[in-house]
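Budget justification aside, the reviewers requested a transparent look at the raw inputs and outputs of the sequence design task funded under Objective 1. We therefore reproduce one unedited record. The lines immediately below are the structure tokens for a 310-residue chain.
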């Protein structure tokens, strides 16, 4: 198992290099001038050229990219053009907000998606199955920004039950978490229903029932445990997506997370900050997928045996 984990961590290195090159190239090709963003619209050409020389922006693309990678290897992500603060420090300060939003959304999605998916599979072609399928289709088609605005209008403005912005308490994360989780809930619900339908038709499930096992025990102890393997993969991928894909929701609810930080950095063409956010989120996503693979071993003994041979 340890050899497998080390191998997966080493694979992250070339992956991160590809990601950094793509993001660096995109930032280079996008219109705009970083020096003008720093000095303002009234800056003279002489002052902009002088600042470009100081920042090394006059050097060729490949040289600047190489220098960035060398600094990154030494643990330096650079300094933000806009705030003149270390990039890593800004990301670390914002990341807890994004993490809270992603974890809250993921918990809601798993609880609702798995429960409704199991009920839909067990009660196939029933009213519950129809409701679960229709509910999943509805959730998958709802835009984040529209749902967020409707929730603010109802629960914050009309009823006054929940706050519409800020991140000081856990209550502030209720509406954003509900908004973000809709797409993930739909994916988990549909996948849980599909995998459960396949699992409950297996021979070992029929054997458990023929031995007089309680139906609830058959479903939740035998069938659900094996049906959750694909669901676990999707949950890991969706959790990684939530960390970097909640930009719109963070903007709607004024959450000062990494999503808002990344969006502001793109607007100001703050290349070090954009690169830092992308690398941080990409590496965290890889760690999540590694954790999902390790969890597989604890759920399925066959996978654990295969890992031990590596």
């Amino acid at each position: 198992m340890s050899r497998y984990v080390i191998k997966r961590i080493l694979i992250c290195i070339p992956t991160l290099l590809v990601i950094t090159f793509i993001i660096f190239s995109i930032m280079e090709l996008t219109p705009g001038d970083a020096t003008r963003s720093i000095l303002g619209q009234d800056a003279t050409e002489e002052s902009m050229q002088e600042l470009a020389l100081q920042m090394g922006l006059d050097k060729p693309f490949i040289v600047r990219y190489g220098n960035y990678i060398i600094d990154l290897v030494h643990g330096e992500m650079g300094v933000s053009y806009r705030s003149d603060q270390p990039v890593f420090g800004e990301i670390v300060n914002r990341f807890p907000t994004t993490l809270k939003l992603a974890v809250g959304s993921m918990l809601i999605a798993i609880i609702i998606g798995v429960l409704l998916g199991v009920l839909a599979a067990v009660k196939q072609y029933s009213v519950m199955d129809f409701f679960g399928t229709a509910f999943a289709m509805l959730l998958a088609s709802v835009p984040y920004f529209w749902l967020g605005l409707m929730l603010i209008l109802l629960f914050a403005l009309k009823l006054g039950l929940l706050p519409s912005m800020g991140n000081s308490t856990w209550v502030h994360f209720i509406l954003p978490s509900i908004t973000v989780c809709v797409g993930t809930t739909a994916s988990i619900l549909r996948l849980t229903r599909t995998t459960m339908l396949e699992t409950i038709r297996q021979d070992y499930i029929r054997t458990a029932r023929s031995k007089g096992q309680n139906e609830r025990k058959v479903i939740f102890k035998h069938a659900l445990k094996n049906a959750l393997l694909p669901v676990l993969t999707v949950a890991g991928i969706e959790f990684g997506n939530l960390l970097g894909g909640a930009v719109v929701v963070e903007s709607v609810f004024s959450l000062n997370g990494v999503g808002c930080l990344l969006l502001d950095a793109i607007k100001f063409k703050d290349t070090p900050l954009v690169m830092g956010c992308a690398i941080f989120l990409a590496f965290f996503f890889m760690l999540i997928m590694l954790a999902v693979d390790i969890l597989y071993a604890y759920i399925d003994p066959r996978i654990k045996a295969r890992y031990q041979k590596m």
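DSSP finds 14 helices and no strands in the chain. The first helix runs from residue 2 to 29. Computational costs for records of this kind are itemized in the attached budget.
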